Each structure stands twice: as C-alpha cells, then as structure tokens.
Amino acid sequence: MAGVNKVILIGNLGKDPDIIVFDGVKKATFPLATTETYKNKDGQKIEQTEWHNVVCWRGLADVAEKFLKKGMQVFIEGKLRNRQWEDKEGNKKHSVEIVSDNFMILTRNQNSQTDQFQNNNNSITEPTLANIINEFSDTDTLGDLPF
User: Which of 27, 30, 48, 138 sits in a 20 to 30 Å window from 83, CA-based?
Assistant: First the structure.
C-alpha cells in the first residue's frame, strides 16, 4: 500500500521569502510560525509556537516572491522532506522542510497589488478559516477509507 505525505499548515511568515535561482529554476524559502493555545492545569492560557521551514519551487516560487511578505497569514499545503548533508567541517546536518504544493494568502488587504492579483487570478483566494476547516472536515468527500 502506498503511503501518504501531506502537510497542511496555517501560520504567519517570519520574514519575506528568500529567493535563489539554480540553473534557471527558482526556489523561495521562508519560515512559517504556527501557534497553538491551550490552558494548563492551573487554567493559565499557554501559547506554543512552532517554526517550519517552507520551500516553494518554480512558478509557485515566482508567486511567493511577488506577493508574500513578513507577517502575512497563509494556508500551506505540501509534503515533508528530510535533508541530510555534511558541512565544510565534515559535520552531519539534518533539516526538515515543508515543500509547498500550494498556498493561499489569508491576510486581507495587505496591499493593492495582492488584491488586484487575487481578483484576476483564481489560483490564489482569500477564504475564511471556517471555510478551510469545513472543506477538510467534510466526511462526505472522504468516501470509503481503508481504515
């Protein structure tokens, strides 16, 4: 049976995307913060933030470069990738990245250029968080699952 490698995140960009071009292929990378809130046993509200390294390639990197800015809230779909390498001193390094297949800008009215793009291109929309959650929790679309 085939496996599934699917990641869905909603969070805020930690900085503007970094852009690198390798042999004509564009790569955009940026940190994404996701925050969960819960109450501890004393009833105190606790926020826990996780940072994720997100990578976009080719056309999606072009869109990220043009429209994503630090602080924006985005919805990211992608897959986990583990990378291992040795640095110049021979030390083994390890990294986990989210390779994005798709993203949606959730921040409204960030700038007029983004609004114009979103009105003229259906590939990036501004859904509400409730619509996103409803889309992924609709059990009628799941069909017969083997588990």
Answer: 48
